[in-house]
Amino acid sequence: MLAPPLRTPLGVSGEPTMRYAGVERAAWCFYAIAALGSSIGQIWVGVEVPPWPDTVPVWVRAVLVLPFAIVIDLGGAVSAGMADWRQRLGESAYGWRILSAASVVVGVGINVVGHASVAYLAVVFGGLGCFAYAVWLLHSAARRRDALRAAGKLRNTAPAYGLLQWRREPAVTARARSLALEHGYGVVESLTTARAQIAEEVRRTALAGHIDAEIRAQHADPILAAIAATTTPVEEVAQHLMHIIDTRGWARRIAAKIQPPTHLAIDPPPPAEESRANHNDEPDLDRLTDLRTDLVNIVPTKPADYRRWHTLWITIRERPEVTNKDLAKDNDISVRTVQRIRAVGAAGLLDAPAPTNTRHLRPAASNGHRPRDQAMTADPVPGSD
């Protein structure tokens, strides 16, 4: 009637856990030794306490008392086993559980009362009976949970998150534990999912409040506004809005606003050059010679390369929201090249459809002399004839 305990508990996948076999065997041995000690204590009491005739030998008394002592201890285990069997079938089995507890109480009471004159014996034999019964109950409960879990009637256990994690993020840890039990997540995956869900709930709640205010603002009548806001599932509207929002579009728009300035700062000229520039009668030459040398030098001189830069600069002007990274990826160039095109184009060096000879104009700004072609066409000095 009483089935022996399983050698190894069944895991979630139905395979025995070999590592637990030694622990379970140790529990079974402890129960057997404790139950034997409790039975010995009851036999001792049965031999000495009852008024046996002096003619009855001690071994005869022990043989006569032995069945009753064993039945009392074994009755508690048998009743507990029956209760465990019925509980596996979904019943409460209160009757068997009460009978098991009563049997153990009788056995412990016999040991405590029978050895009352010697406190040590009363504690030892009474404690052995309590320990044996407790080990049997815990052992059978563990085997029952393993069987129910293997049959799919009991959910899996949650991961251990640790006291520090519970103290640091109690709400997140509680959500993670529920997710782990429901979906079988591990520690890291359950915590990550829990944080994401809680953050989304906070964002959805805040968005729902704004949607509610927007719905109420559409009606001048406060009663109609309240009706509209109450009948509208703002939580569902907020969730749908979060799903259809163009996040990449907003990212591109914001990125376009925080791009570094394309007009590079130019150091102010010395007072002498500034005065000479103010009296210069050639504004086009001034505009070119005031450009920074590094910008002029990076303008492509080959027509094919220049046309490519010119085309990209037109694209940048027509689509200012496109990021440097997207432009570089679409045109198979580096981000640094796109930055150079922006700087050169903003300086007006890519407006012409064909490359201009701007590099030869730069020395006029650095050495104070006109370019050679302009020097040859300059007015002759009076008296040179």
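The record above closes out task 2.4. Task 2.5 opens with a second protein, given below.
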Amino acid sequence: MPDDSDPPRHGDADAVGADALTLAEEAEAEAAEAEALAAAARARARAIRLRRQAQASVTESAVSTTETDTETAGEQDDTSADATQSVAESPADGDTSRPRRPRWRRWHRIRAPRWTTVAAALALLSTCALLAASGYMTWHHREAVQQQRNSAEFTAAARQIVVTLMSIDFNNAQGDVDRIIDNSTGPFRDDFASAADDFIKVATDAKVTTNATVKAAAVESMTSDSAVVLVTAASTVTNAAGAKDAPRTWRLSVDVQRDGDRIKMSKVEFVP
């Protein structure tokens, strides 16, 4: 048997060194492989993260584009959307176990108008309202002015007609009667003209003289061509029966109307 105290041989030392070198190389190889695996894992994780970011960016862009063009896309795809929904409602061929999906009503997002558009619309509406109000005020003013003018014309004509009607001088009875007829129109003129001779005879025989003045006159009702005027008048009467400037007070309702370019009396009534 060999002695344990003998020194190691050179062949054994070389074998041990070779084994140690092999183990070291294997350890390095395993470490390199582990590092490669870790790098690959990091690369895969980075690739997954980049892909997710890209997908998220594409999704956001698609959503933004869809929101911006919803009106146009909705109008163009109404027919295709209805067809797609009809297909979605019916089960696929050969697949009777799939439940029917409910048909959801398609709602389109309405874009809110810009504040500049709203401001322009409000300005346009305000301008139209102001123009309409201005036109109405102008028309109303013209109507009021015309009514005032007509009222003044009818009132002045009625005052003069009453003075002519109630002022008689037996010395000029024919002329006074002719003036009354000339300032009358319609049935009143015809009736008075038919009784003119009798009126002249009575005034002449009674030696009647009357002088009338108008105290007040106002339009009761009026159109553009006619009016009813209330007149308060006072007169003095002198006649052969002994009256000497006897005062009288009268209230009359006078209908006047336009006859050509003049305003004439068509009716007169004494109001109590």
